[in-house]
Design goal:
Elements (H helix, E strand, L loop, with lengths): L7 E5 L5 E5 H18 L8 H10 L2 H8 L8 H10 L6
Antiparallel strand pairs: 1-2
Length: 92
């Protein structure tokens, strides 16, 4: 949750070889593959591209939290609560 989509993750490249990439880069490749699959099935037209782009700009929950939490070794409950409230993920 501290690093969002900047953290490295394992993905398969075009030759099915595992490669470590920033999550944002790897997920972009996976989205492209998913779009190709939808196109092959004749379903690409049902994809709401505008909504997809909006969600990508908003970022994942971990991205939104990482904007509010600085990368440090120890986080307090108050730090996490404050970040969750600021991102709208926790409502009192």
């Amino acid at each position: 949750m501290l690093y969002g989509l900047k953290k490295l993750m394992w993905f398969s490249n075009k030759n099915s070889i595992p490669v470590k990439l920033p999550a944002k880069v790897g997920l972009a490749l996976e989205l492209d593959r998913a779009k190709l699959g939808l196109k092959d099935l004749g379903l690409l037209s049902v994809l709401n591209q505008e909504l997809l782009e909006e969600m990508l700009l908003l970022g994942s929950p971990s991205d939104r939290l990482s904007r509010h939490l600085s990368p440090k070794d120890i986080l307090s409950v108050d730090d996490m609560e404050e970040a969750l409230v600021k991102t709208g993920m926790l409502i009192f």
